[in-house]
Amino acid sequence: MSTSTQEAAEQQDWMNGGDEGAAAVASPRAPSSRYKGVVPQPNGRWGAQIYERHARVWLGTFADEAAAARAYDVAALRFRGRGGAVNFPAAHAAAAAEMAFLAALPKSEVVDMLRKHTYDDELRQALRSSSSAAAAAAGGGRDRATAMLVPRRVALFEKDVTPSDVGRLNRLVVPKLQAEKHFPQLDETAAAPVLLAFEDDAGGGKVWRFRYSYWSSSQSYVLTRGWSRFVREKGLAAGDTVAFSQAAAAAASGIDAGEVGVKRRMFIECRKRKRKGSSHSGVPGDGCCPGGGARVVRLFGANIAAAAAIGASCVR
DNA sequence: ACTTGTGTTGAC
DNA sequence: TCAACACAAGTG
Predict the structure, then answer these.
(1) Residues A220, A212: contact at Cβ < 8 Å?
(2) Contact A14/A66 with Cβ under 8 angstroms?
(3) TM spans, by residue (predicted)?
(4) With a 7 Å cutoff on the CB, does A6 touch strand B?
(5) Strand B atom within 7 Å of A36 CB
(6) What is the pLDDT of residue A29?
């Protein structure tokens, strides 16, 4: 029935071009794209890419050619500023707020958003919560300066990952009690997946995104999308402990995260349990695993998204 | 099995 | 800098 609920969500018409490129639907032939930074994929979809310093930065694949073009535009704005040529100039004319939003984000995160098709969501959230002048400082969420000024945090809860948590199921089961107590409430009726963005403090500000949802079938709260990737890259193994903590009251910004739905800064700490067999993926270049001692991975959570607007539903 | 994303090359 | 082509890596 909902074969492509997610597909529909991902297509979330960035802006639909309006009158620029009305005809989108990928043609079976697709010789090349009319849009800059857009390349056809073997399967008929469209990929977006931008180049920087002789290196290609992949921006993800999209069903709609225009969506891919828009993704390129976003990247171009962040990478090259307004000077860069874009596919939909008009779309950015009155997007001053968007520019501010982009400026406050690391390139890597922008790219990550584009790849995961969450940019639109993140942007809307940021704009919505930035009604005040605290746009960049608090509303926008991941402001570099602000993030760096959050040294303290209070523990929330911990969980030792089970084999299934790090297995093929690609999910982390969050203890119900803790989930309901510390995580945003999930309305089963709305079935709106919540997006949690975490900045990997130990990974040079890398951002991770997890989908937080409730599985009625097993009646459990889980972190799904993005979790498997995290497990792999960090070499998380069964027995390791994942500790969630929350940033100390954001006194600096004056924003109180007392209510659900408001930005809530969280950290997650992974303590590697000692094991004889070093079943470690061995991610090159990461160097997160000293190889023996307890490895600590710290994440910085920026916000919680209520992606209801998009209408995406992953829980049934 | 299918899709994504990278290697790689050559044109602009 | 950019995209076409090939194909390996990733995902379900």
Answers:
(1) no
(2) yes
(3) none
(4) no
(5) no
(6) 40
